[in-house]
Amino acid sequence: GGIKIGEEELKLLLDPYVRKADLALMEALRNNMENPFADPLIEFMKGGKRIRPAILFLINEACGGGGSPELAAAAVELIHTASLIHDDIIDDSDSRRGIPSFHIKHGTEMAILIADFILSIVLEIVSKYEDKRIGRLLSEATKLMSIGEMMEVILLRRGDPISVEDYLNVLKYKTASLFQTASSLGALIAGRDDLYEEMGLYGLYLGLSYQIRDDLLDWGEKGEITYLLKGNDVREFLEDLALQYSMKAMDKLNFIPDSPQKRILREIAAYSIERKI
Ligand code: GRG
Questions:
Q1: What is the ipTM of this complex?
Q2: Ligand 1 centre and the CA of 81: distance in Å?
Q3: Fewer CB within 10 Å: N-end or C-end of the chain?
């Protein structure tokens, strides 16, 4: 139950977690300022919503808190950042977050290299955790994202009609895997091994609804994988699908006790299908 809140109110509720994510990112980048492109990177990172690290922090707290979620939260957002920079090169996309994409502003060479550098910071972060499962989860997400993007490129090159199953598979790999890892990590770092599976599924379903919404927001742009979906009323179908995944994500929250953090996680699932950006 509960009353659905507006986008503005959710932003306010998320604000402390966005700040925490920014602090963690600054800490991770602090030792890496010898990179001549550190400033453009910081500039580029300013525009992100920080939804993935926020989810990691929220689930960590909702699972009792503790551990050191900051480094993992920074790692998740850094992987996301590297993937966006590469994705914009692959899609030849001119803008990102309302400003010119990294490769448009700084050239493709620098865009490739800064993403390489970002992933090396992620390795540095992983080396700081004693628990090997953290590195395993982060590497799993990064691998799946790469595979998902490859699957998408293959399907787009082929240009043949695709099934809903093909489409969902791409989404699961390229987007939902990082949401899943962020969510699993929140529970794992809190020491709740018993919850990390179910919390991971919250992230997986949320990631699916989030990406379907993304595809609906991009509707009509050329080169989109949704063009390949066969059948009529694709748009209505996707709207319904996103709603179903959003509800499946909310269901997974039944595994954790009520808390202010749980309420925010519920609102994030509701927001995933209503967001405008
Ligand atoms: C790990 C370097 C690396 C590459 C993996 C390129 C690639 C292979 C994967 C790209 C996957 C991709 C672009 C998924 C889209 C995910 C998505 C919904 C992006 C938008 O996320 P928001 O709304 O964006 O969180 P902001 O700007 O708020 O951060």
A1: 0.98
A2: 7
A3: N
Cα gap 68→185, rounded to integer Å = 10
Task: State in Å: Cα 83 to ligand 1 middle.
Answer: 5
Q: Which atom of ligand 1 is nearest to the CA of 214?
A: 18
Report the distance separating Cα 215 and Cα 152, nearest Å.
13
Does the CA dihedral 187-261-182-242 come out positive or negative?
A: positive
For a pocket test of ligand 1, which of 174, 181, 217 has the largest count of ligand atoms closer than 8 A to its C-beta? 174
In sequence order, what are the residues at sequence separation of 6 or more whose Cβ sits closer than 8 angstroms to the Cβ of residue 8? none
Among 113, 117, 151, 175, the mutation site with the greatest number of ligand 1 atoms within 8 A of its Cβ is 175
248 Cα to the center of ligand 1, angstroms = 22
Q: Scanning the structure block, which residue is given the tokens 């939902």?
A: 176
Rounded Cα gap, residues 107 and 2, in angstroms: 48
Residue 90 CA: nearest ligand 1 atom is: 6
Pocket test for ligand 1, best of 145, 151, 204, 224 (most atoms within 8 A of CB): 145
Q: Region 34-56: what's the mean pLDDT?
A: 95
User: Where does 7-271 sit in CATH, by number?
Assistant: 1.10.600.10
> For the residues 230-244, what does the mean pLDDT come to?
93
CA 77 to ligand 1 centroid distance, Å = 10
- Length, in residues, of the chain: 277
pLDDT tens digit string along 64-90? 999 999 999 999 999 999 999 999 999
Give the Cα separation of 104 and 109 in Å (integer).
10
